[in-house]
Amino acid sequence: MKDKEFKKDEIIIYKTSKNEVELQVRFEGETVWLRQDKIAKLYGKERSVITKHINKIFADKEVDKKSNVQFLHIANSDKPVAFYNLDMILAVGYRANSLRAIHFRIWATNVLKNYLLKGYTINQKRLFEAQEKFNELREAISFLQEKSKHELLSGQEQEILNLLANYSKTLTLLEQYDKEKLVLAEKGRAKFVLNYEQAQTIIEEVKKELIAKKEASDLFGLESGNRFKGILSAIYQTFDGKELYPSLEEKASHLLYFIIKDHPFADGNKRIGSFLFIYFLDKNNYLYKDSGEKKINDNALTALALLIAVSDPKEKDKLIKIITNLLVL
Asked: If we measure between CA atoms, which residue out of 167, 189, 181, 175 comes closest to residue 327?
């Protein structure tokens, strides 16, 4: 077996409560394998003592040598090194008179055997993460079901179903859970900064095009006080030296939400919010998937804009989660 293959299969599985011992244990053939020096470290004994125990165990035929030992090549070794499986490790542990040996025997009986027989250990952190994600998906389903009944969203039922389908793809819990890959989605960083003067210029250009097509009036993009400037400042706001919305997804989602919900313009809030949302993503090279398809297409964006418009301010966090998850899909 090549060294890199051996290292790839190593995992940290055992640590004493006082952090006296931390071992990397190799899984193979529904058991675990340790070298003599690791067994010595595990039980806090000299290696020579462990060697005597192993030889006596084989002599007494307590365990079978052929099925309980395997020789592997490891780094910095000219010849194969003997590895002993769990049966031998436990057999040595019963002969080693130490608190560490007692501790490991209890741990192995209650935890390791359960893992080997059932294929999993009860990891409270992973269960908590999975439960949190399931709750998030359930809340998103309930939210979209409820809002789909709103009259403003009439005719958007299919798009809402598509939103839900895309959103659920971002929470592939069962596969991730089974493969121990349940991790937070990697979040992008916004290199492009949308400032007030740029945004004003963009809105004016959009306004000209819409008026020419008779799809907007002079009220389109007319600002109400300093709300719009405040929104742009808010997405880059810092607290105690840290950004309030550090990721690209959070900035884009809050930009869309705040413009639609806070009504900084006399007319065109949903259209302006949607356009600046797309513009911001595009300028940060984050608008498209690897396949070339938009992460959120025009129909989906229309549905999201309407959902924000009819939502209760208390539902802000749910909407932000939905949008950010769609962006990392």
From this structure: 167
